[in-house]
Design a protein that fits this description.
The protein contains 6 helices and 5 strands; from the N terminus they run βααββααβαβα. It is α+β, with helices and mostly antiparallel strands. It has a 5-stranded antiparallel sheet with strand order 2-3-1-5-4.
Length: 151
């Protein structure tokens, strides 16, 4: 068996708060996608109510096609800054949970403008689910390096 992890799916999501336009948050999400996927991917809306009764919409799309996932990761890898890539490289374990899932969070406002910068709060979340063999973090690092996300 090889010592590689494979991606089973990738989920993009973001919360649109009552003070934000759902259309603008959707636009920011689509800006993360490669241009040929922007018209293909449909974001489902889930409406809830916040702690103070304010309306909240969660926008979510899951990619399961390996081709679509590879395009997404390649696009992200080509657009993140060298500082963010260094952060991912040096601290990959902070972005990974115990279930082989990589979490990338990007600044929603900057994504709206076409830029990708890591940010933890009120962000666009990309959850990349891995599966496979090998020592998990090492295998994930190898896979992320092959995809260009880390050095």
């Amino acid at each position: 068996m090889d010592n590689m992890l494979r991606i089973s799916n990738a989920e993009l999501s973001a919360v649109a708060h009552a003070t934000e336009s759902i259309e603008k948050v959707t636009f920011a999400l689509k800006n993360v996608l490669p241009s040929d996927l922007r018209g293909k991917i449909i974001f489902k809306q889930e409406h809830t109510t916040g702690h103070h009764g304010n309306p909240i919409a969660t926008l979510r799309a899951t990619l399961t096609s390996q081709g679509d996932i590879q395009q997404l990761i390649a696009k992200i890898a080509s657009r993140i800054s060298s500082l963010d890539r260094t952060s991912l490289t040096d601290e990959l374990d902070r972005f990974v949970d115990e279930e082989e899932t990589l979490y990338l969070r990007f600044d929603k406002q900057k994504a709206y403008l076409g830029d990708l910068h890591l940010k933890q709060k009120d962000a666009i979340r990309i959850r990349v689910k891995f599966h496979g063999n090998g020592r998990k973090l090492d295998a994930m690092r190898k896979t992320c390096k092959e995809m260009g996300l880390v050095n």
